[in-house]
Design goal:
It is a single chain. With 352 residues, this protein is of the alpha+beta class. It folds into two domains: 121 residues, no CATH class; 159 residues. It is built from 16 helices and eight strands. The strands form three sheets. Strands 5-2-1-6 form a four-stranded mixed sheet, sandwiched between helices. A two-stranded antiparallel ribbon has the order 3-4.
Amino acid sequence: MSFIKGIELCRRFHMEIVEPVMKNHYSFLSYSSALIGPGSEVLGYDTEMSTDHDWVPRVYLFLNEQDIRYSNQILSTLHEQSPERFYGFPVDIKKSVITTVSRFIEGYLGINKDERIVPVDWLTFPSQSLLEITQGAVFRDDNGQLSTLRKQFEYYPHDIWLYLMASNWQRIGQEEHLMLRSGFSGDELGSAIIASRLVRDIMNLCFLMERQYAPYPKWFGTAFKHLKCADQIMPHLWTAQTAATWREREHALNNAYKYLSNMHNALGLTEKIPDDVSTFYDRPYKVMQGEAIASLIANQIVDLDIQQLSTKRLIGNIDQITDSTDFRKMNQWSDGECARKAFKNIFKPSVN
Protein backbone atom coordinates (compact mmCIF):
# COMPACT_ATOMS: atom_id res chain seq x y z
CA MET A 1 0.00 0.00 0.00
CA SER A 2 1.64 3.22 -1.14
CA PHE A 3 0.95 6.44 0.73
CA ILE A 4 -1.41 8.99 -0.84
CA LYS A 5 -1.68 12.50 0.55
CA GLY A 6 -4.98 12.96 2.36
CA ILE A 7 -6.31 15.73 0.13
CA GLU A 8 -5.83 13.57 -2.96
CA LEU A 9 -7.27 10.46 -1.29
CA CYS A 10 -10.36 12.38 -0.16
CA ARG A 11 -10.75 13.92 -3.60
CA ARG A 12 -10.81 10.43 -5.09
CA PHE A 13 -13.24 9.30 -2.39
CA HIS A 14 -15.57 12.12 -3.35
CA MET A 15 -15.31 11.45 -7.09
CA GLU A 16 -15.51 7.66 -6.94
CA ILE A 17 -17.79 6.99 -3.97
CA VAL A 18 -19.67 10.08 -2.77
CA GLU A 19 -20.49 11.62 -6.15
CA PRO A 20 -22.01 8.42 -7.63
CA VAL A 21 -24.08 7.82 -4.47
CA MET A 22 -25.44 11.36 -4.52
CA LYS A 23 -26.12 11.21 -8.26
CA ASN A 24 -27.83 7.83 -8.20
CA HIS A 25 -29.82 8.18 -4.98
CA TYR A 26 -30.10 11.88 -4.12
CA SER A 27 -29.98 13.71 -7.45
CA PHE A 28 -32.74 16.03 -6.21
CA LEU A 29 -30.37 17.52 -3.61
CA SER A 30 -27.87 20.30 -4.12
CA TYR A 31 -24.82 19.98 -1.89
CA SER A 32 -21.20 20.87 -1.29
CA SER A 33 -18.37 18.45 -0.59
CA ALA A 34 -14.98 19.30 0.86
CA LEU A 35 -12.05 18.26 3.02
CA ILE A 36 -11.85 20.93 5.71
CA GLY A 37 -11.77 20.97 9.50
CA PRO A 38 -9.23 19.21 11.77
CA GLY A 39 -6.48 16.92 10.57
CA SER A 40 -2.93 17.29 9.29
CA GLU A 41 -4.13 16.31 5.82
CA VAL A 42 -6.25 19.48 5.65
CA LEU A 43 -3.07 21.57 5.90
CA GLY A 44 -1.20 19.22 3.55
CA TYR A 45 1.34 18.21 6.18
CA ASP A 46 0.26 14.57 6.55
CA THR A 47 2.81 11.81 6.05
CA GLU A 48 2.66 8.04 6.27
CA MET A 49 2.90 8.36 10.06
CA SER A 50 -0.39 10.29 10.02
CA THR A 51 -2.29 7.20 8.93
CA ASP A 52 -2.07 5.45 12.31
CA HIS A 53 -5.18 7.22 13.70
CA ASP A 54 -8.10 9.40 12.57
CA TRP A 55 -6.81 9.37 8.97
CA VAL A 56 -9.28 7.84 6.51
CA PRO A 57 -10.92 8.82 3.23
CA ARG A 58 -13.65 11.25 4.27
CA VAL A 59 -15.54 14.38 3.32
CA TYR A 60 -17.67 17.10 4.82
CA LEU A 61 -21.03 17.15 3.02
CA PHE A 62 -22.98 20.41 3.28
CA LEU A 63 -26.71 20.36 2.60
CA ASN A 64 -29.28 23.14 2.55
CA GLU A 65 -31.06 23.58 5.87
CA GLN A 66 -34.33 22.14 4.54
CA ASP A 67 -32.49 19.01 3.33
CA ILE A 68 -30.55 18.14 6.47
CA ARG A 69 -33.26 15.59 7.33
CA TYR A 70 -31.68 13.32 4.72
CA SER A 71 -28.33 13.16 6.50
CA ASN A 72 -28.80 9.80 8.26
CA GLN A 73 -30.20 8.29 5.10
CA ILE A 74 -27.24 9.50 3.06
CA LEU A 75 -24.76 8.14 5.60
CA SER A 76 -26.55 4.79 5.54
CA THR A 77 -26.38 4.65 1.74
CA LEU A 78 -22.71 5.62 1.75
CA HIS A 79 -22.04 2.86 4.25
CA GLU A 80 -23.80 0.31 2.01
CA GLN A 81 -22.09 1.49 -1.19
CA SER A 82 -18.55 1.98 0.13
CA PRO A 83 -15.89 -0.74 0.05
CA GLU A 84 -14.18 -1.80 3.24
CA ARG A 85 -10.91 -0.43 1.88
CA PHE A 86 -10.29 2.38 -0.58
CA TYR A 87 -6.89 2.49 -2.33
CA GLY A 88 -5.71 0.20 0.44
CA PHE A 89 -6.91 2.40 3.30
CA PRO A 90 -9.78 1.46 5.66
CA VAL A 91 -13.10 3.24 5.15
CA ASP A 92 -15.04 4.57 8.14
CA ILE A 93 -18.13 6.45 6.99
CA LYS A 94 -18.62 7.80 10.53
CA LYS A 95 -15.58 10.02 9.93
CA SER A 96 -17.49 11.85 7.20
CA VAL A 97 -19.73 14.65 8.41
CA ILE A 98 -23.05 15.85 7.00
CA THR A 99 -24.09 19.31 8.13
CA THR A 100 -25.02 22.76 6.83
CA VAL A 101 -22.71 25.71 6.37
CA SER A 102 -24.55 27.59 9.10
CA ARG A 103 -24.30 24.74 11.60
CA PHE A 104 -20.67 24.14 10.75
CA ILE A 105 -19.57 27.72 11.33
CA GLU A 106 -21.69 28.07 14.46
CA GLY A 107 -20.15 24.95 15.95
CA TYR A 108 -16.65 25.88 14.81
CA LEU A 109 -16.41 29.55 15.72
CA GLY A 110 -19.49 30.06 17.89
CA ILE A 111 -21.06 32.59 15.51
CA ASN A 112 -24.30 32.81 13.56
CA LYS A 113 -23.48 32.98 9.85
CA ASP A 114 -26.42 35.31 9.21
CA GLU A 115 -25.43 37.83 11.87
CA ARG A 116 -22.91 40.58 11.31
CA ILE A 117 -19.46 39.68 12.58
CA VAL A 118 -18.08 42.66 14.48
CA PRO A 119 -14.31 43.28 14.49
CA VAL A 120 -13.78 42.14 18.09
CA ASP A 121 -15.27 38.75 17.16
CA TRP A 122 -12.13 38.07 15.11
CA LEU A 123 -10.04 38.23 18.28
CA THR A 124 -11.88 35.16 19.59
CA PHE A 125 -11.07 32.97 16.56
CA PRO A 126 -7.93 30.79 16.92
CA SER A 127 -5.76 31.02 13.81
CA GLN A 128 -5.71 27.22 13.61
CA SER A 129 -9.52 27.20 13.35
CA LEU A 130 -9.39 29.80 10.60
CA LEU A 131 -6.86 27.65 8.76
CA GLU A 132 -9.11 24.61 9.09
CA ILE A 133 -11.92 26.57 7.41
CA THR A 134 -9.85 28.10 4.61
CA GLN A 135 -7.38 25.30 3.81
CA GLY A 136 -8.04 21.80 2.50
CA ALA A 137 -10.00 21.48 -0.74
CA VAL A 138 -13.52 21.96 -2.05
CA PHE A 139 -14.64 19.16 -4.37
CA ARG A 140 -18.13 20.44 -5.20
CA ASP A 141 -20.11 23.55 -4.26
CA ASP A 142 -23.52 23.63 -5.92
CA ASN A 143 -24.83 26.84 -4.40
CA GLY A 144 -21.50 28.55 -3.68
CA GLN A 145 -22.14 28.85 0.06
CA LEU A 146 -18.95 27.07 1.02
CA SER A 147 -16.78 29.16 -1.30
CA THR A 148 -18.43 32.30 0.06
CA LEU A 149 -17.70 31.18 3.62
CA ARG A 150 -14.06 30.47 2.85
CA LYS A 151 -13.68 33.83 1.14
CA GLN A 152 -15.22 35.57 4.15
CA PHE A 153 -12.57 34.13 6.48
CA GLU A 154 -9.69 34.27 4.01
CA TYR A 155 -7.78 36.67 6.25
CA TYR A 156 -8.21 39.16 9.08
CA PRO A 157 -9.90 42.52 8.38
CA HIS A 158 -7.36 45.32 7.99
CA ASP A 159 -7.76 46.90 11.44
CA ILE A 160 -7.61 43.50 13.16
CA TRP A 161 -4.42 42.78 11.21
CA LEU A 162 -2.93 46.06 12.43
CA TYR A 163 -4.02 45.38 16.01
CA LEU A 164 -2.45 41.91 16.00
CA MET A 165 0.85 43.20 14.60
CA ALA A 166 0.91 46.01 17.14
CA SER A 167 0.21 43.49 19.91
CA ASN A 168 3.05 41.29 18.71
CA TRP A 169 5.52 44.18 18.70
CA GLN A 170 4.25 45.07 22.17
CA ARG A 171 5.07 41.56 23.39
CA ILE A 172 8.56 41.84 21.90
CA GLY A 173 9.07 45.25 23.47
CA GLN A 174 8.04 44.00 26.89
CA GLU A 175 10.49 41.09 26.96
CA GLU A 176 13.43 41.88 24.65
CA HIS A 177 15.35 43.62 27.44
CA LEU A 178 14.37 40.98 30.03
CA MET A 179 16.23 38.29 28.09
CA LEU A 180 19.35 40.46 28.25
CA ARG A 181 18.93 41.52 31.88
CA SER A 182 18.56 37.95 33.13
CA GLY A 183 21.58 36.83 31.13
CA PHE A 184 23.64 39.77 32.37
CA SER A 185 22.69 38.73 35.91
CA GLY A 186 24.06 35.22 35.31
CA ASP A 187 20.75 33.46 34.70
CA GLU A 188 21.44 31.80 31.36
CA LEU A 189 18.53 29.37 31.69
CA GLY A 190 16.06 32.16 32.36
CA SER A 191 17.55 34.16 29.50
CA ALA A 192 17.21 31.18 27.16
CA ILE A 193 13.54 30.70 28.11
CA ILE A 194 12.74 34.33 27.36
CA ALA A 195 14.69 34.06 24.09
CA SER A 196 12.48 31.16 23.06
CA ARG A 197 9.40 33.25 23.76
CA LEU A 198 10.84 36.06 21.64
CA VAL A 199 11.62 33.66 18.80
CA ARG A 200 8.01 32.52 18.81
CA ASP A 201 6.77 36.14 18.83
CA ILE A 202 9.05 37.00 15.92
CA MET A 203 7.78 34.00 13.97
CA ASN A 204 4.18 35.00 14.68
CA LEU A 205 4.93 38.51 13.49
CA CYS A 206 6.37 37.11 10.26
CA PHE A 207 3.14 35.17 9.64
CA LEU A 208 1.18 38.37 10.19
CA MET A 209 3.36 40.51 7.95
CA GLU A 210 3.01 37.96 5.15
CA ARG A 211 -0.74 37.76 5.82
CA GLN A 212 -0.77 34.06 6.61
CA TYR A 213 -2.61 32.30 9.44
CA ALA A 214 -0.22 30.50 11.78
CA PRO A 215 -1.01 26.86 12.59
CA TYR A 216 -0.94 25.29 16.02
CA PRO A 217 2.41 24.17 17.54
CA LYS A 218 2.81 20.83 15.73
CA TRP A 219 3.04 22.52 12.33
CA PHE A 220 4.15 26.00 13.41
CA GLY A 221 7.79 25.57 12.37
CA THR A 222 6.89 23.58 9.27
CA ALA A 223 4.56 26.31 8.01
CA PHE A 224 7.08 29.00 8.93
CA LYS A 225 9.62 27.46 6.56
CA HIS A 226 7.22 28.18 3.69
CA LEU A 227 7.13 31.93 4.38
CA LYS A 228 9.02 34.18 1.98
CA CYS A 229 11.18 35.55 4.80
CA ALA A 230 12.15 32.16 6.22
CA ASP A 231 15.44 31.61 4.42
CA GLN A 232 16.79 34.97 5.57
CA ILE A 233 15.57 35.10 9.14
CA MET A 234 15.62 31.44 10.22
CA PRO A 235 19.40 31.22 10.74
CA HIS A 236 19.24 34.10 13.23
CA LEU A 237 16.27 32.56 15.06
CA TRP A 238 17.95 29.17 15.23
CA THR A 239 21.11 30.74 16.64
CA ALA A 240 19.07 32.59 19.26
CA GLN A 241 17.27 29.35 20.12
CA THR A 242 20.43 27.29 20.52
CA ALA A 243 22.92 29.84 21.84
CA ALA A 244 24.73 29.03 25.07
CA THR A 245 25.27 32.63 26.20
CA TRP A 246 23.10 35.70 26.41
CA ARG A 247 25.49 37.74 24.26
CA GLU A 248 25.08 35.23 21.44
CA ARG A 249 21.31 35.45 21.83
CA GLU A 250 21.48 39.24 21.80
CA HIS A 251 23.48 39.30 18.58
CA ALA A 252 21.21 36.77 16.85
CA LEU A 253 17.96 38.44 17.88
CA ASN A 254 19.26 41.87 16.95
CA ASN A 255 19.97 40.57 13.45
CA ALA A 256 16.43 39.20 13.34
CA TYR A 257 15.01 42.54 14.50
CA LYS A 258 16.86 44.35 11.71
CA TYR A 259 15.27 42.02 9.17
CA LEU A 260 11.85 42.54 10.78
CA SER A 261 12.23 46.31 10.56
CA ASN A 262 12.93 46.05 6.83
CA MET A 263 9.86 43.85 6.40
CA HIS A 264 7.77 46.36 8.31
CA ASN A 265 9.04 49.32 6.30
CA ALA A 266 8.30 47.47 3.07
CA LEU A 267 4.62 47.30 4.09
CA GLY A 268 4.41 51.09 4.09
CA LEU A 269 1.95 51.15 6.99
CA THR A 270 3.70 53.75 9.15
CA GLU A 271 6.57 56.16 8.99
CA LYS A 272 9.82 54.25 8.60
CA ILE A 273 11.12 52.63 11.75
CA PRO A 274 14.85 52.37 12.53
CA ASP A 275 16.61 49.57 10.68
CA ASP A 276 18.98 49.00 13.58
CA VAL A 277 18.84 48.36 17.30
CA SER A 278 19.60 50.95 19.97
CA THR A 279 20.86 50.98 23.55
CA PHE A 280 18.36 50.23 26.29
CA TYR A 281 18.75 53.29 28.54
CA ASP A 282 22.31 53.25 29.98
CA ARG A 283 22.57 49.48 30.09
CA PRO A 284 25.22 47.52 28.18
CA TYR A 285 22.88 45.90 25.66
CA LYS A 286 20.71 46.83 22.71
CA VAL A 287 17.04 46.33 21.78
CA MET A 288 14.58 47.13 18.97
CA GLN A 289 12.21 49.25 21.11
CA GLY A 290 9.25 47.11 20.13
CA GLU A 291 6.70 49.06 22.16
CA ALA A 292 7.40 52.23 20.16
CA ILE A 293 6.78 50.32 16.92
CA ALA A 294 3.57 48.90 18.39
CA SER A 295 2.35 52.43 19.07
CA LEU A 296 3.06 53.53 15.50
CA ILE A 297 1.02 50.65 14.10
CA ALA A 298 -1.84 51.07 16.57
CA ASN A 299 -2.16 54.72 15.54
CA GLN A 300 -3.19 53.56 12.06
CA ILE A 301 -6.30 51.71 13.31
CA VAL A 302 -9.54 53.33 12.11
CA ASP A 303 -12.29 51.15 13.61
CA LEU A 304 -13.41 52.94 16.77
CA ASP A 305 -13.84 49.83 18.93
CA ILE A 306 -10.47 48.35 17.99
CA GLN A 307 -8.87 51.78 18.25
CA GLN A 308 -10.25 52.17 21.77
CA LEU A 309 -9.13 48.66 22.66
CA SER A 310 -5.60 49.34 21.40
CA THR A 311 -5.23 52.39 23.63
CA LYS A 312 -6.18 50.38 26.72
CA ARG A 313 -4.72 46.90 26.16
CA LEU A 314 -2.61 45.64 23.29
CA ILE A 315 -3.13 42.02 24.29
CA GLY A 316 -3.78 40.59 20.83
CA ASN A 317 -6.19 37.74 20.16
CA ILE A 318 -6.90 34.41 21.80
CA ASP A 319 -3.68 32.92 20.37
CA GLN A 320 -1.60 35.65 21.98
CA ILE A 321 -3.45 35.49 25.29
CA THR A 322 -3.00 31.76 25.85
CA ASP A 323 -1.41 28.69 24.33
CA SER A 324 -3.83 26.35 26.14
CA THR A 325 -5.32 24.00 23.54
CA ASP A 326 -8.44 23.39 25.63
CA PHE A 327 -9.05 27.12 26.04
CA ARG A 328 -8.60 27.83 22.33
CA LYS A 329 -11.04 25.07 21.43
CA MET A 330 -13.80 26.36 23.71
CA ASN A 331 -15.45 28.00 20.67
CA GLN A 332 -16.03 24.49 19.37
CA TRP A 333 -18.23 23.50 22.29
CA SER A 334 -21.80 22.61 21.39
CA ASP A 335 -22.54 25.82 23.28
CA GLY A 336 -20.04 27.80 21.24
CA GLU A 337 -22.02 31.04 21.45
CA CYS A 338 -21.54 31.13 25.24
CA ALA A 339 -17.82 30.49 24.82
CA ARG A 340 -17.49 33.32 22.32
CA LYS A 341 -19.27 35.70 24.69
CA ALA A 342 -16.89 34.65 27.45
CA PHE A 343 -13.92 35.41 25.22
CA LYS A 344 -15.34 38.79 24.24
CA ASN A 345 -15.63 39.72 27.92
CA ILE A 346 -11.82 39.64 28.03
CA PHE A 347 -11.82 42.59 25.64
CA LYS A 348 -15.20 44.06 26.63
CA PRO A 349 -14.15 46.61 29.27
CA SER A 350 -12.66 48.75 26.53
CA VAL A 351 -15.20 48.06 23.80
CA ASN A 352 -18.78 49.39 23.63
